[in-house]
Amino acid sequence: MNARISTAALGRNSGRNSGRNSGRNSGRSGGPAPDAISTTVATPAATRLRATADSEWIKFRSVRSGPAVLIATLLAMLLGAWLVGIGYRSGYTAADRASFDPGDVTLRGIVVAQLLVGALGVITVTGEYTSGLIRGTFIATPQRRQVLAMKALIFGGVVWVWCTVLSFGAFLVGRAFLTAPVPRVGLGDPGVLTAVFGGGLYLTGIGLFGLFLGVLLRRTAASLAALVGVMMVLPVILALLPGKTGELISEFSPAGAGFQIWHLDHGGHNLGAWPGFALFAAYVAATATAAFVTIRRRDV
Fold it and tell me: Which of 25, 26, 133, 250 is the one with CA 20 to 30 A from 220?
């Protein structure tokens, strides 16, 4: 009797459990669960792009040394224009006047500013590799080239606006201290607007060059060494070559080609303002191509 009761109870329980499980399974098989829906529906490209832009903008603003570097760039440009400008107010000969380059004088601060902007480009990327944040970024957004493109776009936009404003400010400050016998020029004189506008373009190119070097090397020290080596040490080494060989090669180096855009006097050079900048941009584009290829294939 007890055995029949137990068997009957087990049968009822089995039926109830079977019914419950069957109901649950039938409910699941009737269509995907809400969670499944949310994971299987593809995120629209525009939404993903906007999310990537927001993320990269937040990360760019969170770079601790970013504001300090931008302020240091301001000081380098304006103080450089002031110091060099007042230094040209005396002891000027007719030969000096003939070869005088107002662009080189008023925008001389670019020589220091390029290192600051290039370093900012480096640490914008290498900081993520050092902290490990880059892993979370690529998990959230597997489209690595999209992340890099958005990072470069935001960085380049901010740096271009800032450095173009500084370039115009440096020219106006330096010009105010250029008095007779030094010839003065205005923005309306031939080539001046190109030189001043080109100062911002050149610094933006240097910053992007540093950013892509950071992607390739992933280490701050190595990237900074490569940046300084290409932009500062290489011209010195080329200048040591005998005859005019070094001078000719130096003109086609990244630094020599890029310098053409913010100078007014191109005497003795084969490249002019825009051809020189085009060659410099080609160097940056080649580095960018290597960075886009590498970031897709290499583990983080």
Answer: 250
Give the separation between CA 106 and CA 167, rounded to whole angstroms.
9
What's the length of the chain? 300
Enumerate long-range contacts of 226-230, CB under 8 Å, 24 or more apart: 227/115, 227/118, 227/119, 227/122, 228/115, 230/254, 230/255
Query: What does the pLDDT look like over 50-84, one tens digit per residue?
Result: 888 998 899 888 887 888 999 999 999 999 888 88
* Amino acid (1-letter code) at residue 282: A
- In the block, which residue shows the tokens 């087990």? 10
Provide φ and ψ at 193, rounded to 5°: -65, -35
> Is residue 232 classed as helix, strand or coil in its secondary structure?
helix
Q: Per-residue pLDDT tens for 120-146?
A: 999 999 989 988 888 888 888 888 999
CA distance 38 to 76: 52
Distance of alpha carbon 190 from alpha carbon 180, whole angstroms: 20
Q: Evaluate whether 86 touches 177 at the Cβ level (below 8 Å).
A: yes
Using an 8 Å Cβ cutoff, are 215 and 289 in contact? no
Query: CA–CA separation, 122 vs 44, rounded Å?
Result: 31
* pTM across the whole model: 0.80
